[in-house]
Write a structure and sequence with these properties.
Blueprint lengths: L1 H29 L8 E5 L5 H10 L8 H8 L8 E5 L5 H10 L4 E5 L6 H11 L11 H8 L14 E5 L4 H21 L10 H14 L6 H13 L7 H8 L9 H5 L22 H8 L8 E4 L5 E4 L2 H11 L14
Helix pairs in contact: 2-3, 7-12, 8-9, 8-12, 9-12
GO cellular component, one term: plasma membrane
GO molecular function: lytic endotransglycosylase activity
InterPro entries: MLTG-like
C-alpha cells in the first residue's frame, strides 16, 4: 500500500513536471521575438534547425536555441529554405519556422520603363544596388546568347514591366523574366492581330511597336501613329521617323538632329532606308504591341509633335508642312515632344 502511494506521488510529480515542461516549451515557441523593429535573417545552405536556433539565440532574439528543433519535430514537414527573411516584432518562434519553411524570402521590385533600351535597363538595375550585375560590358550578341534569344540583340526583347526579385538574383535572371513575358505577350497579340498588316513575322511587329513607343507616350495616339506607319509601308513610303535616326547615331547623339544626320546612312536611318530598321529601337509594354497589331483608323500619312506631348496628324504633305511651320519652327520654351512622366 505504501509502495502504491509512493508510485502515485511520483506519477503526480512527473505529470506536474511534464506540464511545466510543456508549458515552458509552448511559451518559448509562442512568445514574441526579442526584437524592437524589423530584422533581416539569413538562412545559409545546409543550416540545420539547431544551427538556426543558435543564430537566433546569439543575437538575443530567443532564449532557448533547442526550441527550433522542437518546432521542427512538432511539424515534420518544416524544412528551412535558403534565403534572407524579414522578421517582425509581432512574430514568435513558431511563426519564424513556418516562414522559413515557406521560403518567403525578402523580395524587392524594379520597374523597367517603356521606351528605354536594354543598356538603360542595366543602368537601372546597377543603381538598385542589390542585383548581381553579370551582363555589363558584354556585347549585345553575347547578352542575347545568354538570354537564349534567336536574334542577335536583346533590344526590344524585354517586356517593360515591374518585376520582383530577391537578394542574390542577377541582371540575367530579371532579363530572362522580362523576355518570357515579352514572348508570351507578343505570341498572344500576334494570334489575334488585325488582317492585312505588312509584317512578315512577330519580330517585325515588335520593331514597329518600338517605333510607336518612341514616337508617342500618349495612349490614345498609339493606334493612330501605328496606322500612319502601316499606311506608309503599304504605299512603299519611307517611315522617316526621328527616333530610329537617333538610335542609329548611338553615343554620337547630343540632343539634336542635324540635316547631315538625316543624310547619313545607317541601318536605322529611316530617311535613307526602305521599310523597317533591322531591330527594335527600345523595349515596350503591352500598349505599343497592341497598337502595332491593331492600328487605328485614319487617312493621315504624316504627324508632327505639337510641343505639349500630343501630335497633329495630316493627310497631305501640304497640311503637314503647315503644321511643321506652326509647331516646329516656332517652338515655345516649354516645348516637349512627349508627355511628361
Amino acid at each position: 500500500m505504501k509502495l502504491i502511494k509512493t508510485l502515485i506521488a511520483l506519477l503526480g510529480i512527473a505529470i506536474t513536471f511534464a506540464s511545466i515542461l510543456v508549458g515552458a516549451v509552448y511559451y518559448g515557441l509562442t512568445e514574441p521575438l526579442n526584437i524592437q523593429s524589423d530584422q533581416r535573417f539569413e538562412v545559409k545552405k545546409g543550416a540545420s534547425s539547431i544551427a538556426i536556433g543558435n543564430q537566433l539565440a546569439d543575437r538575443g532574439w530567443i532564449m532557448h536555441p533547442f526550441l527550433t528543433r522542437v518546432a521542427a519535430r512538432l511539424d515534420q514537414s518544416i524544412v528551412p529554405k535558403v534565403g534572407i527573411y524579414k522578421l517582425t516584432p509581432d512574430m514568435n518562434l513558431m511563426d519564424v519556422m513556418v516562414l522559413l519553411d515557406a521560403g518567403e524570402t525578402i523580395s524587392y521590385s524594379i520597374t523597367l520603363l517603356e521606351g528605354k533600351t536594354y543598356k538603360q535597363y542595366l543602368a537601372t538595375m546597377a543603381n538598385a544596388g542589390n542585383i548581381e550585375m553579370t551582363l555589363q560590358g558584354l556585347a549585345s550578341d553575347e547578352i542575347a546568347q545568354k538570354i537564349g534569344l534567336d536574334v542577335a540583340s536583346p533590344e526590344g526583347m524585354l517586356f517593360a514591366n515591374t518585376y520582383r526579385y530577391h537578394d542574390g538574383d542577377t541582371d540575367l535572371d530579371i532579363f530572362m523574366q522580362a523576355n518570357r513575358l515579352l514572348q508570351a505577350t507578343l505570341e498572344r497579340e500576334w494570334k489575334n492581330k488585325a488582317n492585312g498588316l505588312p509584317y512578315r513575322t512577330p519580330y517585325e511587329a515588335l520593331i514597329m511597336a518600338s517605333i510607336i513607343e518612341k514616337e508617342t507616350g500618349t495612349p490614345e495616339e498609339r493606334p493612330l501613329v501605328a496606322r500612319v506607319f502601316v499606311s506608309r509601308l503599304e504605299r512603299g513610303m519611307r517611315l522617316q521617323t526621328d527616333p530610329t535616326v537617333i538610335y542609329g547615331m548611338g553615343d554620337e547623339y547630343n540632343g539634336n538632329i542635324t540635316r547631315q544626320d538625316l543624310r547619313t546612312h545607317t541601318p536605322y536611318n529611316t530617311y535613307r532606308i526602305d521599310g523597317l530598321p533591322p531591330t527594335p529601337i527600345a523595349n515596350v509594354g503591352y500598349e505599343a504591341i497592341h497598337a502595332a497589331l491593331h492600328p487605328g483608323e485614319t487617312d493621315a500619312l504624316y504627324f508632327v509633335a505639337k510641343g505639349d506631348g500630343s501630335h497633329v496628324f495630316s493627310n497631305t504633305l501640304r497640311e503637314h508642312n503647315r503644321a511643321v511651320k506652326s509647331y516646329q519652327l516656332k517652338r515655345k520654351e516649354d516645348y516637349r515632344s512627349s508627355p511628361s512622366q
